[in-house]
UniProtKB/TrEMBL annotation:
InterPro entries in UniProt: HD/PDEase_dom, HD_domain, NT_sf, PolA_pol_head_dom, PolyA_RNA-bd, tRNA_CCA-adding_enzyme
Annotated ranges, domain tRNA nucleotidyltransferase/poly(A) polymerase RNA and SrmB- binding: 184-245
Matching PANTHER family: MULTIFUNCTIONAL CCA PROTEIN (PTHR47545)
Organism annotation: Kaistella antarctica
Pfam family membership, one: PolyA_pol
Descriptive protein name: Multifunctional CCA protein
Keyword terms: Magnesium, Metal-binding, Nucleotide-binding, Nucleotidyltransferase, RNA-binding, Transferase, tRNA processing
UniProt gene name: cca
Transmembrane feature ranges: none
Length: 473
C-alpha cells in the first residue's frame, strides 16, 4: 500500500527529510504512533518519530541545518536519539535497533539493526507501522505484522511472542491497557493471557511511568475500560490495592451493601462525560476509598461506613505519596472533594438549615461546582424512580445553597473585620487574642448569629473582646 503524502500538512518537511537522507546516503522512515494515528484519522499529532538504518543523531543534525532558522538539536546519547522542535512538533530521530533484555531491567542492551529489527522491537503491531521516505518507494507503507488489519479489527497484538514481549518490558502491559482505553481496542486473547501470567514483572517499572499511562486511562472517554482491564489482569491489585479492597458484596441477616468497586467505576465513567479535569476524575475514583476500612454491620442500622469520607481523604495523601503523584494543590483538591463528597446529600436527611448550608459553602469554597458534578455522577442506581428522586433532592440542595450564597456570600469568605482593625479597637499588639476573636467572628457568621457585615462584626468583636477582659481603646 502507498500512502499519498502530497496532501499531508507536513509534506514539505517529509520531502526535505527524504532529500537530506538521500544526500547523506541514509535510509529514513516515519514510524510508530504518527503512522497509526494517520491511518486512523485520529487527533492532530504532537510528535513524529523517524528511524534510519544508520546514525539518527547525524541525520537530525543535517536536517536541522537545512531549516532556517536552524532549530537546536537535543541529543540523548544513552538512547542514541536526537530531537528538535519544528512548527510546534517534536521530531525525534533514532537509529534502527535490535534489542535484548536482562531479567532485572526494562533497559535493553542495544545494537544497530535494520528497519525490520526495529519494527519487531515495538510494542504493538499497530505501533510498528512505517512509511518510507526514501526516493525509490516514497510513501510506501511497510507493515510486516499486519498492523493495518489489526487497526481494522481494533485489536492490540504484539509483533513477537507476547509473554516475551511483556516480560522484557512490563511497561507494555500498562501501554496495552492504556491503548485499549483510549482507542477503544480489545487486547488480543494471547496477549491478555500473557499479561496475567507476567503481571508481577510490573514491579520493576517505576511508579512515575505507570502513572503516566494510568493518567492517560483516566483521561480517556470511558476510563472503566482500562480500569476493568487493570482489575482483570491483577495490575490494579499490585498498584492500588485500596481500590480492589472495595470489591465484593457481603450479606448479614439478609442485608447486603452495594459493590463499591463497580460503583466507583460507574461514577468515574459518569463524571468523565462532564469534565476533562484529571483531578476531578481522580476524586471520583477515590470518593469511596475509605469504605473498605470503615465497613461495619451494626444491629439495628445494617451496613455502615461511618467516617469513610474523613478516612478516605487521609488515604488520598498516602496514596498520592506512594503513587508519586503531585502532593501540592492537586492532591489537596482531591482530598477536599473526597472529604466533602457526602455532605450535600447528608443535608437532605439532616435538614437544610441555613447554618449547615453556609458551612458547606465555606468548606467547599471555589470547588463547590466540582463537588456538585461529583455528587451527580455518584447517583448510579438503576431504579429510575429512585434516580429521579435523588436528582430532585439534589437539585433542591443546590438551589438552597445558591440562595444562601446570594444572601451571605461566605463562599470565598473574607473576614469583614481584619486583624489590624481588631488591634486598633483594643489598642493591642499582635497576639493570640486576635486569632481567637477572628475565629469567633467566622463562627458567628456561619452559625447565622450575625450577618457577613462590617458593622455587625465590629459590634460583635467589641462585645466578645470585653468578655475576654479587653478594654476598648
Ligand atoms: P502517543 O499517542 O501516546 O504518543 P505513541 O504510540 O506515539 O502514542 P510513544 O510513547 O510516543 O507512543 O512511543 C512512540 C513509539 O515508540 C510507539 O508507537 C511504539 O512503536 C514505540 N514504543 C514506545 N514505548 C514502547 C515500549 N515500551 N516498547 C516497545 N515499543 C515502544
Ligand atoms: Mg507518540
Amino acid at each position: 500500500m502507498n500512502i499519498n503524502l502530497t496532501q499531508n500538512k507536513n509534506f514539505k518537511l517529509f520531502k526535505l527529510i527524504s532529500e537530506v537522507a538521500e544526500k547523506n546516503d541514509q535510509t529514513v522512515f516515519i514510524v510508530g504512533g504518527y503512522v497509526r494515528d494517520l491511518l486512523m484519522k485520529r487527533k492532530t499529532p504532537t510528535d513524529i518519530d523517524f528511524v534510519t538504518e544508520s546514525n539518527g543523531m547525524s541525520l537530525a543534525k543535517s536536517i536541522a541545518s537545512e531549516i532556517q532558522p536552524s532549530p537546536t538539536v537535543t541529543i540523548f546519547k544513552n538512547y542514541g536519539t536526537a530531537m528538535f522542535k519544528f512548527q510546534g512538533l517534536d521530531l525525534e530521530f533514532v537509529g534502527a535497533r535490535k534489542e535484548s533484555y536482562a531479567e532485572d531491567s526494562r533497559k535493553p542492551s542495544v545494537e544497530t539493526g535494520t528497519l525490520d529489527d526495529d519494527q519487531k522491537r515495538r510494542d504493538f503491531t499497530i505501533n510498528s507501522l512505517a512509511i518510507s521516505l526514501n526516493k525509490e518507494n516514497f510513501g510506501d507503507l511497510i507493515d510486516p505484522f499486519d498492523g493495518v488489519l489489526d487497526i481494522k479489527k481494533k485489536i492490540l497484538r504484539t509483533p513477537l511472542e507476547p509473554s516475551q514481549t511483556y516480560s522484557d518490558d512490563p511497561l507494555r502491559m500498562m501501554r496495552a491497557i492504556r491503548f485499549a482505553s483510549t482507542l477503544n481496542f480489545t487486547i488480543e486473547e494471547d496477549s491478555l493471557k500473557a499479561i496475567k501470567q507476567e503481571v508481577d514483572r510490573v514491579k520493576i517499572v517505576s511508579m512515575e511511568r505507570i502513572m503516566v499511562e494510568f493518567n492517560k486511562i483516566m483521561l480517556s472517554e470511558k476510563p472503566s475500560v482500562g480500569l476493568k482491564l487493570m482489575e482483570e489482569t491483577g495490575i490494579l491489585d499490585l498498584v492500588m490495592p485500596e481500590l480492589t479492597a472495595l470489591k465484593g458484596i457481603e450479606e448479614v441477616d439478609g442485608q447486603t451493601h452495594k459493590d463499591n468497586f463497580w460503583h466507583t467505576l460507574e461514577v468515574v465513567d459518569n463524571i468523565s462525560k462532564h469534565t476533562e479535569n484529571l483531578w476531578l476524575r481522580w476524586a471520583a475514583l477515590l470518593h469511596d476509598v475509605g469504605k473498605a476500612p470503615t465497613k461495619k454491620f451494626l444491629d439495628g442500622s445494617g451496613w455502615t461506613f461511618h467516617g469513610h469520607e474523613f478516612l478516605g481523604s487521609k488515604m488520598v495523601k498516602s496514596l498520592f505519596y506512594r503513587l508519586k503523584l503531585p502532593l501540592g494543590n492537586d492532591m489537596k483538591y482531591v482530598q477536599k472533594l473526597v472529604k466533602l463528597s457526602s455532605r450535600p446529600i447528608a443535608l437532605i436527611d439532616d435538614g437544610t438549615s441555613d447554618s449547615a448550608l453556609r458551612r458547606l459553602l465555606f468548606d467547599a469554597g471555589e470547588d463547590l461546582e466540582d463537588l456538585f458534578i461529583l455528587n451527580k455522577a455518584d447517583i448510579t442506581t438503576k431504579n429510575s424512580s429512585k434516580q429521579a428522586k435523588f436528582k430532585k433532592n439534589f437539585e433542591y440542595v443546590a438551589s438552597k445553597i445558591k440562595e444562601v450564597e446570594e444572601k451571605d456570600q461566605v463562599r470565598n469568605f473574607q473576614p469583614p473585620i481584619s486583624g489590624e482593625e481588631i488591634m486598633e479597637l483594643f489598642n493591642l499588639k499582635p497576639g493570640r487574642e486576635i486569632g481567637i476573636l477572628k475565629e469567633k467572628v467566622k463562627e458567628a457568621i456561619l452559625e447565622g448569629e450575625i450577618g457577613n457585615d462590617k458593622d455587625e462584626a465590629r459590634n460583635f468583636v467589641i462585645k466578645e473582646g470585653e468578655t475576654l477582659g479587653l478594654i476598648l481603646a
